[in-house]
Amino acid sequence: MRLTSREIWIDYAKFISIFLVVLFHTNPNLDGYIFDFLRLLRMPAFFLIAGLLFNMKKWNNFIDFIKHRFKRLIIPYIWFSLIFYILWILIGRNMVGETELAINPLTPIKEFIMGRPNIVLAPYWFITCLFMVQILFYFLKTYINSSIVIIIISILCYWGIIYFDITNLPWCIDKAFLFLPFYAYANILRENTHKFLLRERIYIIILTTISFVLLILNNKFVISPYINHLLYIISGFCIMPVYIVFCKYIASKFNITPISNGIKYIGDNNIITLAVQNYIIGFIKILGVKLLAINLLTTNYYILNIVIALTTIVISMSIAFFINKYVPFLIGKTHNGRIY
What we know:
The protein has about 350 residues and is mostly helical. It has helices at about 10-25, 35-50, 60-95, 100, 105-115, 125-145, 145-165, 175-190, 200-220, 225-255, 255-270, 270-290, 300-325. The chain is globular, with a radius of gyration of 20 Å. The protein starts with 7 loop residues before the first helix and ends in a 14-residue tail after the last helix.
């Protein structure tokens, strides 16, 4: 059985994923086994959700698919890159000081062309990476019906990248092969999302334990880059069904219209949160130093980091409201909310 057009738990999964992304940007020093475990969910879960929503039968051909993905992903990438580049040139460099002033003004433009933003729009590497993942999966799926074979091919390709020490490929192709297995894995789970065998708690405990143990092994021991990569993939594969069950459980407990609508709105505007989060967090950091004389983002009070992350999401949603209402073309939409 396939996913329906609107599954509430998908919205909660999107919310949890963007929350984890923002949380780890509030304090890069969050550590410990729990945070290592949450890191495992952070980016792979994003690709899992995208893979769950992928339906090849929806597109007449590859060109139609590319056009839709370009409008949904690359148009926001272009607009937000332009906006934040201008702000960086006019304001940002001077605010940060010598470190930023020493950067060649052409460097962000080169990063934009290469599809590997870092200086002015660092989180958007995910956008270009997801674009490449979707192109690769569509192309492979056209000729290879089995998602398992696609997973094996993507793992072998990433091993080739490791072997030849290939880094910083245009448009994050190297990272795309890292995350492509999760996208393909989601395509397998998609067929069974309504009939998971995880109704017994013992299955959840077993899969979570395996994932946690593999994660510890992967973090503590460098066996070989190939084995460590494989442990990362298997660990992610084990926890993803549990993650889906957890999201379904949360959605069932908080299936209240105002809450669900809010969660859905946040999930639908993740692309905006990704763009503005670092700037909102930076503003909060400046306020903390100016008003409280403390660095709010390096504190060990994790509750405070959670509050900052939630505040960042709330502020980003006010920006999202403005964009959707007045300048929807920035995110590839028309005023009626459709992708043009």
